[in-house]
Design goal:
This protein has 110 residues and is α+β, with helices and mostly antiparallel strands. It has one domain. It has three helices and six strands. The longest helix has 16 residues, at 68-83.
């Protein structure tokens, strides 16, 4: 499943790839000007929006492999986050702070 959202400075791509038992889940922030992107699953703002403790080591990586049911639940919560304009603007501010601290993966999209 893929869900895309357009912000002011960033585009966002929420993707869930299903397996038989587990699914991969990732949220990418894509800078509109440079087309550089970073997985932002483990951004504290995202974690708290998904009701996940930032201290939960299971969610420390920038992409997640999770049981299908949990991945489905988090996909829909993340979709709701990205669908809300006010939340999307807050998310962009947190992404900017993350970049300022050097926490940006700088994956280049072609």
């Amino acid at each position: 499943m893929l869900f895309e959202a357009e912000g002011k400075e960033y585009n966002f791509a929420l993707e869930k790839t299903d397996g038989e038992i587990e699914s991969c889940l990732s949220i990418l922030a894509i800078d509109k000007k440079t087309k550089l992107c970073s997985s932002i699953n483990n951004l504290n703002f995202v974690l708290s929006s998904l009701d996940i403790s930032y201290q939960n080591y299971r969610f420390a990586d920038s992409s997640w492999t999770l049981p299908n049911e949990l991945a489905d639940d988090l996909f829909y919560k993340a979709r709701d986050l990205l669908s809300d304009r006010a939340s999307l603007l807050l998310l962009e501010a947190h992404v900017d702070l993350d970049r300022e601290k050097g926490e940006w993966e700088n994956i280049c999209l072609q």
